[in-house]
Design goal:
Layout: H1 2-15, E1 25-30, H2 32-36, H3 39-51, E2 54-59, H4 62-70, E3 76-79, H5 82-90, E4 98-110, H6 123-133, E5 137-139, H7 145-157, E6 169-171, H8 176-186, E7 189-193, H9 194-199, E8 206-210, E9 217-224, H10 235-246, H11 248-256, E10 258-259, E11 262-263, E12 266-267
Parallel strand pairs: 1-2, 1-3, 5-6, 5-7
Antiparallel strand pairs: 3-9, 4-7, 4-8, 4-9, 4-12, 10-11
């Protein structure tokens, strides 16, 4: 799909020693989880060694990453909110979107588990119980992919947690790591992507309390920014990067990344 449609010619040019007159750097507007988990530190040196293209990552919430890309402040978008990604492409800001990899969301909480949700795999039931008990819940509240997913899950329960903002529902307006730190500091439940949780170093007495619901599936996508909307885009290098990510080598490199002997991301780009 993407490797064939968007990046094949540029990637072949580089890998066969063809001339590369353009700037050998790109900006990726990215979700925070891929950065916080250490994936880029593992992945990008492999890509740069192979192509000579330096990738500069701006790691923000998905909503902000999309806004930045729409403002032409990036060459590639790599985020995890498929409906928002599809709107980005439909509006002409992306040349095309493809699935890249996935993991899942989990809800973490203290060992004391004040709402009694430990071991539940029904995320809507767990959230309903947290709301009914008035147990503290810390939300990113930042229009990130994680926040968008969290709000969709609350909507499925028929609960508007923002009505309890400042009471049991606490919105940090911060990234995932900062929200985890804040949540742990106040003894609140937090929804996070699993990769960030595995990589997170301040777990204290916290553990995963809710996991395994298919509604907590977390898909990532990659989109080159459209030069018709943003003429400054380094489109050849952007397509080369996106094409490499979804190639067999890129997918194998993503799968090989582990923390504490646990695989953080599972590649699922369409096969060529």
């Amino acid at each position: 799909m993407l490797a064939r449609t968007f990046g094949a010619s540029a990637l072949a040019l580089l890998l066969t020693g063809g001339a590369w007159a353009q700037d050998r750097s790109i900006i990726v507007q990215s979700t925070t989880s891929t950065a916080n988990s250490g994936l880029y530190d593992y992945l990008l040196p492999v890509f740069q060694d192979k192509t000579g293209i330096k990738v500069n990552v701006v790691a923000v919430g998905t909503g902000q990453a999309i806004k930045n890309a729409q403002n032409c402040d990036g060459d590639v978008l790599l985020v995890h909110s498929k409906p928002s990604e599809e709107k980005f492409v439909e509006a002409g800001f992306g040349t095309g979107r493809t699935d890249l990899m996935y993991n899942d969301f989990v809800i973490v909480g203290p060992l004391s588990d004040p709402a009694g949700v430990g071991g539940m795999s029904d995320v809507q039931g767990a959230l309903s119980r947290i709301a009914e008990q008035g147990a503290l819940f810390a939300s990113r509240g930042d229009d990130s992919g994680t926040h968008k997913k969290e709000m969709a899950l609350w909507s499925d329960t028929g609960t508007d947690p923002t009505a309890a903002s400042g009471d049991w529902y606490r919105e940090t307006g911060s990234g995932m790591g900062a929200t985890l730190n804040a949540g742990i500091g106040m003894g609140a439940y937090v929804m996070t992507d699993r990769a960030t949780w595995i990589s997170f170093g301040n777990k204290q007495d916290y553990k995963i309390q809710v996991e395994g619901d298919e509604d907590m599936f977390n898909q990532y996508g990659v989109i080159p920014v459209n030069p018709e909307k943003c003429p400054s885009v380094n489109i050849d290098a952007a397509q080369t990067f996106a094409g490499w990510l979804v190639s067999a080598e890129g997918q194998q490199t993503i799968a090989a990344y582990k923390v504490a002997d646990q695989q953080l991301f599972f590649p699922n780009a369409p096969k060529n």
